[in-house]
Fold this sequence. Notes:
Adenylosuccinate Synthetase, Chain A, domain 3
Amino acid sequence: MILIVCNSVNILHVAFLKVCVAYEIEGKEIDYVPYDLDDATPIYKSFPCWDKTEGCRTFDSLPETAQSYIKALEEMIGTKIRI
């Protein structure tokens, strides 16, 4: 079983996080990183950030926006993320 560990989610002090979910090349969308990025335009999905996570030791204690971000990443990469 592959497992990803996510730590330091409290250091993100921006309004939104953008995750590249695909690329567009010559009008076509691809879901992998192309060999040549010069002609590729990234396609982003934006996630709202969250307030402080100080003291959070479990997934359930994280703000809902942080939980949603982690769940979306899990779905994108096809594996579980633990904090």
